[in-house]
Design a protein that fits this description.
With 394 residues, the chain is α/β, with parallel strands linked by helices. Helix content is 44%, strand content 12%. Helix 2 links the parallel strand 1 and strand 2. Bound molecules: S-adenosylmethionine (SAM) and iron/sulfur cluster (2 copies).
């Protein structure tokens, strides 16, 4: 049997293919300095790729959609529009993470849908940790993230979290999230996580997706982030990526220019007073272009090279805006990422011959040779300002 033969051992007729089991090897997570070196090599490769577009860069992080199903009904998302069946089961996901670890992936982002509606989510994450994937991240709406669940995912090895908050108050958040009371539950989960930072070294980020109906709240989101003491990431509404393709969502991405300009001015004002927990000015400069209000900042898509997408039913490859054409149930991951089809597509995506989604625009901006230096200079300035303010307080 060649390695690309669909797995059929022990299968009954008409049963769908399953991800082939691979040996589960316990590896020690790589030390921080080796992770930084690996990241440095990756960024250097993306710079070299500008000169040599055929250079193949293997992804080092995986975006794992444990499920496409959800416990909320956000107006900006289609996850809940239908019940997705035939998703990878626990043993299949364990084989996926074993394959990723064998390929030296250093990061796994667990997401969905809502990953935590799977009771086996923590076991899959723990399996990734045992396999040696060092950075484990979770995106969640926080609805089921009570103290027990926090213990469970921390024990499994998650060390960074994105918690989605779509507005600074119950009215605005719940209207987008489709459930009364969601704001209170999610902010409570966020605060519980923040309280754990004293005991465990975890990074927590509040993810605010900018949409037509909440753009005006940007200044209030800056206030909320600083009041809670949590880093704020401004995610940008889109209708081009997997899970967000829908006419109603397209309407939500049409942000009014005057509203956005005024909201960004209010946000920047707060940032000038105190940049703590707020996005870098470089990120803020990108936002009007994303919503078509000025020309976009034209940078290659490093995000498409950084990550391998594995969706809940096993389709693997592509990027946020372009669907995968291969499936881990029929092709091992090593073969997918070295296939000519994958390599050709990645070359196209890097030069943004794509539907333009803006996903993780921050990573694209931060990894440019011409933006890296001003960005580091800005964050040093911010840090100096913070230290001066702290000195002033003490
Ligand atoms: C699809 S959710 C999956 C994780 C989890 N269910 C949650 O809500 O955080 C991932 C992120 O996508 C964001 N999102 C939802 N609709 C979006 C849209 N139309 N464009 C861009 N991001 C969107 C959510 O706010 C969330 O931060
Ligand atoms: S954005 Fe997250 S919480 Fe909302 S419906 Fe989509 S997957 Fe669920
Ligand atoms: S910007 Fe383009 S290449 Fe990058 S993830 Fe989005 S659709 Fe893919």
């Amino acid at each position: 049997m060649t390695s690309s033969t669909p797995v059929s051992i022990g299968r009954r007729r008409n049963e769908p293919p399953r991800v082939a089991p691979v040996p589960h090897v316990h590896r020690t997570p790589i030390p921080a300095w080796r992770r930084s070196a690996r990241l440095g090599r990756f960024v250097a490769a993306t710079w070299a790729k500008r000169l040599r577009p055929d250079l193949h860069i293997r992804p080092i992080a995986a975006e794992l959609f444990l499920t496409d199903n959800c416990n909320l009904k956000c107006i900006s998302c289609t996850c809940w529009h239908e019940n997705t069946l035939g998703e990878l089961d626990e043993s299949e996901w364990c084989s996926v993470v074993d394959q990723l670890a064998a390929l030296d992936f250093m990061k796994a982002n667990f997401t969905g849908g809502e990953a935590l509606i799977r009771r086996d989510a923590a076991r899959i994450i723990a399996h990734a940790r045992e396999a040696g994937i060092s950075d484990l991240h979770l995106n969640t709406n926080g609805i089921v993230l009570d103290d027990d669940r926090i213990d469970e995912v921390l024990e499994a090895g998650v060390r960074s979290f994105n918690i989605s908050i779509d507005g600074p108050d119950p009215e605005s958040h719940d209207a987008i999230r489709g459930r009364d009371g969601a704001f209170e539950i999610t902010v409570d989960a966020l605060e519980r996580l923040l309280a754990r930072q004293h005991k465990t070294d975890i990074a927590v980020r509040m993810n605010f997706t900018v949409l037509r109906t909440n753009a005006e709240h940007l200044p209030a989101m800056a206030d909320l982030a600083q009041r809670l003491g949590v880093d704020l990431y401004l995610n940008l509404g889109t209708d081009t990526t997997f899970l967000f393709r829908d006419q109603g969502i397209s309407d939500l991405t049409k942000v009014d220019g005057d509203t956005l300009t005024a909201a960004l001015a209010g946000f920047n004002e707060r940032r000038q007073r105190n940049p703590e927990h707020l996005p870098n000015a470089l990120d803020l400069d990108y936002i009007p272009g994303h919503f078509g209000l000025e020309p976009t900042i034209d940078v290659p898509c490093v995000e498409s090279q950084l990550k391998l997408m594995v969706r809940s039913t096993g389709s693997t490859g592509g990027c946020w805006g372009h669907d995968a054409t291969m499936n881990v149930r029929t092709t091992p991951i090593a073969e997918i990422i070295d296939s000519p089809a994958y390599r050709e597509e990645q070359a196209r995506l890097f030069r943004k011959d794509c539907v333009q989604c803006g996903s993780n625009y921050s990573v694209n901006l931060r990894t440019q040779p011409n933006t890296l230096v001003p960005m580091v200079a800005r964050s040093l300035r911010d840090r100096a300002g913070r230290t001066a303010r702290e000195r002033g307080r003490s």
